[in-house]
Give the backbone structure.
Amino acid sequence: MIERYLVDSEYSYSVKIKIGIHSGSSLAVNSNDKLDYFGTTVNKAARIQGLAEGGEIVMETKWDDDDLPVHEGFERIKFQSELKGIKGDQNLVRWKLT
């Protein structure tokens, strides 16, 4: 329904979602009635998300994680990348729509 509205509207554009995943502890702060998160984990997740293109999920993984499920309609691509402010290359996997 949203997609149909965007196509039929005068602004006519499509929405592509990109996701970056990283897990770990973070600092939760409640300021001005809003909950926000800070810390290395949050920064790393933001850097990982920045490597994703529309329709992709990028997440940190171990190179020996061959037991990661391969879902129909997705291609799994393992790669290494530097992340700004994070020491050393990171082992990542990209889930790309096929």
